[in-house]
Amino acid sequence: MPSATENDHSNGASNHGIPTSCPSCPEPLKYSGTLDEYPYFEVMPIIGREYTTLKVTDILKAPNAEAQIRDLAIIISERGVVFFRDQDDLQIPDQKKLCDLLGKLSGRPEENGLHGKPNCVSRLPADPDFAPVHPIYRDPGNLKLPDGTTDENIYVINSEAQKKIYKTMAKRQLTEPKDLSREWHSDSTFENAPSDFSFLKMEETPPHGGDTLWCSGYEIYDRISPPYRAFLETLTATCAQPVFRSAAAAGNYEVMSPRGSPLNTGDEFAPSHPVVRTNRVTGWKAIFAGVGLHVTKINGVYAYEDQMIRDYIMRLITRNHDCIARMKWTKNAAAIWNNSCVWHAATPDTHLVNGNRTGVRASSIGEVPYLDPQSKSRREALGIPLI
């Protein structure tokens, strides 16, 4: 499958076939301090922040709401993931609005929106069925929202429903213990323009289990030697997810298209993305398409080298648990993360306890992933020594 650049989805100039800029956000953003009044703690020194009393709706209602949301996008992009508790008053329209504004106010392409409907419909092909969401929204196995409705901008995460939806996935029936490293991913890397921000609120949780982990792609990049970083920066990876096509065929429905961007059409779901990318908000480099559920191969290398590279990056994740923030979910807790710089992984252990794990997630669609050769790593930018 050709890369996004080769498909004329480029951001401009390219290096090794990788776009080198983000025209919609040419310079990193600077935090202005509007969130300093809200108490928080850092989950880990490297990754994660939790605001202890802040309600998301307070930000939306603030007189300087746009400035606060822009600053929140910067904090999320610097910390990777931000947690909130007790968001009992947060309704689906508020969740969608905040997620959409996080992308819009932090410089995503103007024509993009939530994983589906764009902000500027007039700039898109005339299509009455322009679809806002997940490719298999039409799947009969998808659950409704808690109020009994459906929403094309919201993906319902349900531990029981997903067993039915993804029954066509290869090796779904296990004959040996599951390799949990397969859970790591960043959202929508199977799209030409993947998600930037994802916003998940947990509606229902079992008494324990189902924790989610996030790992810093910034820090994993910083743990790699400079010569090997330089090599990885020349590579792209194919990020294929054929299960969407097979699920649609099995369910006799059409895949939703386009999805949040005029670039996200069709049902191939196999774009190429850079192994190392620049985060448009911070300007920092992170490992991106080097590992994860959707990454099927490193392009342009031999099969053994492909596996060796992905195994190496996965080993960096598993041996460096100081790069990981863990969320113990509680009812009405929420997390917002930047997929450009973190991977996340749910812990699939809820089958061992009574109760279901149900959440609602909105995702914004960002730019085509790029690598600015002049961008720095997080530690380089902040002057933090590795040791």
TrEMBL record:
Signal peptide span: none
GO molecular function, one term: metal ion binding
Gene Ontology cellular-component annotations: cytoplasm
Cofactor(s) annotated in UniProt: Fe(2+)
Domain TauD/TfdA-like span(s) in chain numbering: 47-348
Tree of life domain: Eukaryota
Iron as UniProt keyword: yes
Keywords, in A-Z order: Dioxygenase, Iron, Metal-binding, Oxidoreductase
Gene3D superfamilies for the chain: Clavaminate synthase-like
InterPro entries given in the database record: AtsK-like, TauD-like_sf, TauD/TfdA-like
Similarity comment: family membership: Belongs to the TfdA dioxygenase family.
Protein name: TfdA family taurine dioxygenase
Organism: Clohesyomyces aquaticus
